[in-house]
Design a protein that fits this description.
- With 77 residues, the chain is mainly beta.
- The chain has a single domain (2-76), classed as ATP Synthase, domain 1 (Sandwich).
- It has no helices and 7 strands.
- Strands 2-1-7-6-5-3-4 form a 7-stranded mixed beta sheet, with no helix packed on it.
Length: 77
Protein backbone atom coordinates (compact mmCIF):
# COMPACT_ATOMS: atom_id res chain seq x y z
CA UNK A 1 0.00 0.00 0.00
CA UNK A 2 1.10 3.58 -0.64
CA UNK A 3 1.82 5.69 2.45
CA UNK A 4 2.38 9.44 2.84
CA UNK A 5 3.25 11.10 6.15
CA UNK A 6 3.11 14.89 5.94
CA UNK A 7 3.72 17.64 8.52
CA UNK A 8 3.10 21.37 8.05
CA UNK A 9 6.85 21.78 7.43
CA UNK A 10 7.77 18.83 5.20
CA UNK A 11 7.01 15.39 3.86
CA UNK A 12 8.43 12.80 6.30
CA UNK A 13 7.77 9.59 4.36
CA UNK A 14 6.37 8.62 0.98
CA UNK A 15 6.45 5.11 -0.39
CA UNK A 16 5.22 1.53 -0.25
CA UNK A 17 4.88 -0.41 3.01
CA UNK A 18 3.40 -3.68 4.24
CA UNK A 19 2.06 -2.41 7.58
CA UNK A 20 1.65 0.81 9.51
CA UNK A 21 0.98 1.03 13.25
CA UNK A 22 -0.48 4.25 14.66
CA UNK A 23 -1.29 5.87 18.03
CA UNK A 24 -5.06 6.40 17.78
CA UNK A 25 -6.91 8.49 20.36
CA UNK A 26 -8.63 5.31 21.63
CA UNK A 27 -5.51 3.14 21.45
CA UNK A 28 -2.93 1.82 19.03
CA UNK A 29 -4.09 0.26 15.73
CA UNK A 30 -2.59 -1.15 12.54
CA UNK A 31 -3.38 -0.77 8.86
CA UNK A 32 -2.60 -3.57 6.39
CA UNK A 33 -3.01 -3.90 2.65
CA UNK A 34 -6.65 -3.68 1.39
CA UNK A 35 -7.91 -2.09 4.62
CA UNK A 36 -11.44 -0.70 4.66
CA UNK A 37 -11.83 3.08 4.18
CA UNK A 38 -11.09 4.95 7.42
CA UNK A 39 -10.66 8.44 8.85
CA UNK A 40 -9.36 8.73 12.42
CA UNK A 41 -7.69 11.16 14.81
CA UNK A 42 -4.21 10.40 16.15
CA UNK A 43 -2.61 11.26 19.47
CA UNK A 44 1.00 11.89 20.46
CA UNK A 45 3.15 8.80 19.96
CA UNK A 46 5.15 6.82 17.43
CA UNK A 47 4.17 5.69 13.95
CA UNK A 48 5.72 2.39 12.93
CA UNK A 49 6.16 1.73 9.21
CA UNK A 50 7.12 -1.84 8.24
CA UNK A 51 8.75 -2.20 4.85
CA UNK A 52 10.58 -5.39 3.74
CA UNK A 53 11.15 -6.63 7.33
CA UNK A 54 12.60 -3.25 8.30
CA UNK A 55 10.77 -1.13 10.90
CA UNK A 56 11.04 2.66 10.85
CA UNK A 57 9.58 4.86 13.59
CA UNK A 58 8.36 8.47 13.37
CA UNK A 59 7.42 10.55 16.44
CA UNK A 60 4.26 12.68 16.09
CA UNK A 61 2.33 15.05 18.37
CA UNK A 62 -1.08 14.11 16.95
CA UNK A 63 -2.83 14.33 13.61
CA UNK A 64 -5.33 12.70 11.27
CA UNK A 65 -5.21 9.58 9.07
CA UNK A 66 -7.22 8.77 5.94
CA UNK A 67 -7.22 5.30 4.34
CA UNK A 68 -8.81 4.88 0.91
CA UNK A 69 -8.10 2.49 -1.99
CA UNK A 70 -4.80 1.19 -0.54
CA UNK A 71 -3.53 4.75 -0.01
CA UNK A 72 -2.78 6.01 3.50
CA UNK A 73 -2.43 9.74 4.08
CA UNK A 74 -1.30 10.97 7.48
CA UNK A 75 -1.39 14.67 8.33
CA UNK A 76 0.78 14.88 11.45
CA UNK A 77 1.92 17.56 13.87
Amino acid sequence: MQIEIITPDKEIFKGEAELIQLPGIDGSFEILNNHAPLISALQKGKIKVKKSNQDTFYEINGGVIEVLDNKVLILAE
